[in-house]
Amino acid sequence: MSLLVVGLSHRSAPVSVLERASLSADAQTKLLQDTVAAEPASEGAVLATCNRIELYADVDKFHAGVAELSTLLAQHSGVGLEELTPYLYVHYEDRAVHHLFSVACGLDSMVVGEGQILGQMKDSLARAQETHAAGRLLNDLFQQALRVGKRAHSETGIDRAGQSLVTFGLEQLALGTPVEAWARGKKALVIGAGSMSSLSAATLVRAGVAEVVVANRTPDRAERLVRTLTEGDDTDVAARAVPMTSVPFELTRADVVVSCTGATGLVLTAEMVAAGVEGRAGGMPVVDLDAVADEDTREGAPATQPQTPAEDGCPVDLPAVRPGFSVMGEAAVAGMDAATLEQHGAWAAGSAVDRRDAARGTGPEADAEVIGALAATASAIGRIPERRRPEPVDAPPRPEPVLFLLDLAMPRDVDAAAHRLPGVRLVDIESLAEASADAPMAADVDQVRRIVSDEVAAFGAAQRAAHITPTVVALRTMAADVVAGEIARLEGRLPGLDDKHRAEITQTVRRVVDKLLHAPTVRVKQLAAEPGGAGYADALRTLFDLDPETVASVSRAEESTEKNAENRGPG
Q1: How far is it, in rounded angstroms, from Cα 97 to Cα 460?
Q2: In what order do the strands lie in the sheet with 211-215?
Q3: Is the pLDDT confidence value at 100 over 70?
Q4: Is the pLDDT of residue 388 over 50?
Q5: Where on this chain does NADP(+) bind (predicted)?
Q6: Which of these is catalytic: 50, 105, 260, 314?
Q7: Is residue 20 within 8 Å of residue 265, measured between CB atoms?
Q8: What 8-state DSSP symbol labels residue 288?
Q9: Which pLDDT does position 523 carry in this prediction?
Q10: CB 543 within 8 A of CB 521
Q11: Are 470 and 551 contacting, i.e. CB atoms less than 8 angstroms apart?
Q12: CA gap 374, 368 in Å, rounded
């Protein structure tokens, strides 16, 4: 077994890189075809989700395999190899198995314990099978990973450690309110009809929304999803399908929007979202709150000191100088231009400053040199910068959201600028990644890790044992040929041998051969299951002078039998 995985995920790469490296369904198929066509790889499978892209392959050379798989990922993702390489991780043999099993259990997910990954993994295996890229190793690996994932969810409380990405996203939209209470009675718009969109729609229905509208580029898929949502006597949600051209109008009606399409460009621009908010009954004027806050900060900054001369020629507004600061300190003269500062310096050189300082209770005496130095600074930069802490400026209150957006697509469907619009709350993959970083881990995670470790050991043992099986079969085939040859030779020497005695002799010889081979073949399978056990197959081939082509033909025959069984499907 020479299993290799090269990939990147939310743990190794920023969302911006994952977004650019995302693969469409067609791109995944082409990547699979190029992988199995590459020299180091004989099998391939792609696991591509909203927060990971991984390429699995059975390779005969490690370093050549890493180089080839990395290059293929870069070529098909459109991200240059030099830029992509720092974010790639590599796992080999047992570590690769451990990684995939951990992914299947939700241990490597953005939201620990989420179960959506199992469906995505099943789709990846189906795509590899359809393109004939998956052979015995990857078929066994992915099918076992699915079983391990199901075992983890059924035997532990890993589900309590986290939810699906959809549920987690809705929790972020609800801002601490229970999702069922927050969603009750709302109108939902779901854009897309794939697996994630279907999960989103079903989750919203369970949460108690009053209406679900499904928009998709393919009307048939949207209609199928609507039928699924309305099936069953216990469902009273209103559901309908609309074309994508109806999305702008539906934005004026929806309270919550979930978008997860395979589009390469934006599905909802900030302008579309703004128009949707303005078009609602009692809609509000849409402005950029960040820009308003910036402008208010500039306009609300503390005014510079008055530059009209005060009494006795002092240009400083003495009552405005905070107690404890000298009238010659920088706090008093901050903001003055050079000419006014020179006037203040001339005033400070007079005797009046001592009287005024004493009257104000400030400590330092007049120092015209300090004023002169400040004047020189003002001449160079135009003004003395404000050194006092600016007065706090109240940001304009943000209206309560009237439109909630959940963007689960990669690359993103919703313009990130929509988060600045009043009345809009946007949660996307990037914000989910930040929110999940501090999510608590459940105690059940340790139990799942133990399950993964046990299953990795069992899978490795099974693969090593399976590796020696063709050699054992070839050995027994050779022994059977020897028995048949000796019986034929005996018949030639004893032509009068009757059928009864011939059968008895034949059975006796076969029992002798079986007994001689039984202990070695059973023991060699046991030894082969241990780490490094592949060498026992080589020893058998050498000791019994087995033809390598005979062993290879047994392997091909077994793979053909397994493939025919997969094509027939379950009985």
Answers
A1: 8
A2: 238-242, 211-215, 187-191, 256-259, 403-407, 424-428
A3: yes
A4: no
A5: 192-197
A6: 50
A7: no
A8: -
A9: 77
A10: no
A11: yes
A12: 10
pTM above 0.85, yes or no: no
Q: Which of 216-220, 247-251, 408-412 has the lowest mean pLDDT?
A: 408-412
Locate the DSSP E strands across 379-526: 403-407, 424-428
Nearest to 4 by CA among 50, 33, 52, 45: 45
- 263 with 414: CB under 8 angstroms? no
> Both tokens of residue 275?
């128009």
Query: For residue range 306-345, what is the model confidence (pLDDT) as tens digits?
Result: 333 344 556 555 454 444 444 445 555 555 666 776 676 6
**Cα(524)–Cα(545) distance, rounded to whole angstroms?**
16
308-330: burial string, b at 16+ Cβ within 10 Å, e else: eebeeebbbeeeebeeebbbbbb
Find the range with the poorest average confidence among 147-151, 204-208, 374-378, 474-478. Answer: 374-378
Token pair listed for 371:
């004023």
Per-residue pLDDT averaged across 468-481, rounded?
80
Write out pLDDT tens, residues 451-464: 999 999 889 888 77
What are the residues facing 262 on neighbouring strands? none
CA distance linking residue 177 with residue 147, whole number of Å: 35
239, two tokens: 């559901």
Q: Structure tokens of 474?
A: 């070839």
Q: How far apart are CA 216 and CA 231, in angstroms?
A: 20
Interstrand relation of 238-242 and 256-259 (parallel, antiparallel or unpaired): unpaired
In this predicted structure, the answer to whether residue 207 has a pLDDT above a threshold of 80 is: yes
pLDDT band (50, 70, 90) for residue 374: low
Asked whether the predicted pLDDT for residue 403 surpasses 50, the reply is yes
Written as six digits, the tokens of 194 are: 């794939």
Contacts of 446 (CB under 8 A, 6+ apart): none
For this structure, is 50 an active site residue? yes
d(Cα 559, Cα 438) in Å, to the nearest integer? Answer: 46
Q: Can you tell me which residue has the tokens 């025919």?
A: 564
3-state secondary structure at position 31: helix
pLDDT of 336: 63
Phi, psi (degrees; rounded to nearest 5) at 127 = -65, -40
Average pLDDT over residues 89-111: 92
Question: Torsion angle of alpha carbons 154, 157, 159, 161, nearest 10°?
Answer: -150
CB atoms near residue 239 (< 10 Å): 21
CB neighbour list of residue 342: distance below 8 Å, 6 or more residues apart: 375
- Compute the distance between CA of residue 301 and CA of residue 299 in angstroms, rounded to an integer: 6
Q: Phi, psi at residue 327, to the nearest 5°?
A: -70, -15
Among 139-143, 273-277, 489-493, where is mean pLDDT lowest? 489-493
Which residues line the annotated binding site for substrate?
49-52, 109, 114-116, 120
At 34, which amino acid appears? D
Give CA angle at 409 (404, 413), nearest 5°. Answer: 65
